[in-house]
Amino acid sequence: MGISRDSLHKRRETGGKQNKWRKKRKYELGRQPGNTKLSSNVTVRRVRVRGGNFKFRALRLDSGNFSWGSEATTRKTRILDVVYNSSNNELVRTQTLVKNAIIQIDATPFRQWYQQHYGIEVGLKKKLGASNAPGDEKQVEEKKVSKSVKDKLKARDVNRSLDSHLDDQFATGRLYACISSRPGQCGRCDGYILEGKELEFYQRRLLRKKGKVAGL
């Protein structure tokens, strides 16, 4: 028996059973899930589907494009870990990459972009105090830059704001992100960095999860 997506085997809305009045159809077929794993041995398979089109079934991935919404920038970075999945904890244990999974990504590309764009290095709270401390600006002054570049950085710094939770994550070198693509359908693992209320929500969920484990 193959995987079928038909509804003839289901009961009616009133609860009665339906008699099967036809066999399965090709257009109702289903396939085995991709179950994309986190691995450096990147593997993507091409699957021929209905209409002569192709899907790209990612079996193993280790990187993707992630956007930083508040800064309107996107960088390709490594995926480091799968930390939370609201549907099934087994997907966390097996390091399975699916849509809406919460993962940790390498913060280095975003830290480098931030330093280049604002002239301020983030994630140095333990060494230099708060991210808005004057010590951060000193690092920019030491570099030989033209007056126009200094004016540009000064203008950008007027509207600059960095969430304290994000700054703490930059200090660890890991950022929480959410997968927004479907690796088993498009062969890519893209997403966005968690910020604001969404980040606070998932941090609470992770703390609660750690508390349950510690309680055992």
Write the layout of secondary structure elements.
Layout: E1 37-38, E2 43-48, E3 54-61, E4 63-68, E5 73-84, H1 90-93, E6 102-106, H2 108-118, H3 125-128, H4 134-142, H5 147-158, H6 164-172, E7 174-179, H7 183-186, E8 191-193, H8 196-215
Parallel strand pairs: 1-3, 4-8
Antiparallel strand pairs: 2-3, 4-5, 5-6, 6-7, 7-8
Concise synopsis of the structure shown:
The chain has helices at 90-93, 108-118, 125-128, 134-142, 147-158, 164-172, 183-186, 196-215; strands at 37-38, 43-48, 54-61, 63-68, 73-84, 102-106, 174-179, 191-193. It is α+β, with helices and mostly antiparallel strands and 216 residues long. The model has no long low-confidence stretch (mean pLDDT 88).
